[in-house]
Amino acid sequence: MFTGIVEEMGSVKGVKRGARSFQISVNARRVLDDVKLGDSIAVNGVCLTVTAYDGQHFTADVMPETMDKTALKHLKAGEPVNLERALRLGDRMGGHIVQGHVDAVGAIKGKEKRDIAIVYAIKAPVEVLRYTVPKGSITVDGVSLTVIDVLADSFTVSLIPHTAGQTVLGLKEPGDYVNLESDILGRYIEKLLKTDGAGAKSNLDMGFLAENGFI
Q1: 32-41, 91-100, 139-148, 165-174, range with the lowest pLDDT
Q2: How far apart are CA 150 and CA 116, in angstroms?
Q3: Is 152 exposed, middle or buried (0-12, 13-18, 19+ CB in 10 A)?
Q4: How high is the pLDDT of residue 93?
């Protein structure tokens, strides 16, 4: 579990590719402070398991499912990456609940400077957009962001100068790929509206939620 608050930007040390999987080594500093074998570290929003490490880098395996569903497959040696260690009980929840389980790969459609902010338009598939709402949360390359608008095939988000300078998102340009993870709360709400948890149709509907002050 993560929060979408990036701790540092690391860089890809190397990639060893197999037929449908690969091993990635990442140069880092802060996330290595208390690292142990088997720890989880989010790399551009993808939860990976540490399989080896030293004082300057860590290594993780990327399985076929992750290859298919994320933009990690495009990484090359020297590229910067967002890094975040798993959430500890008692930590501040600065972002939102992030699993590190990427739903889909999106693409930057547009990048616009608005005063101090950078506004990105990001093309996304329907399986992400159905859970994306204005003022809601979404994770882009491991960064917790607030949605501005939702369009037919995309959504917009805004980056403050700190986020642009401290994460790889500030380096992204139109055409670049990004990992997208929708807010898990939306998925649970959809599930509850459809069934009672045992497979039967639920009595919950939007009218019930409105009448009882939930929406």
Answers
A1: 91-100
A2: 22
A3: exposed
A4: 84
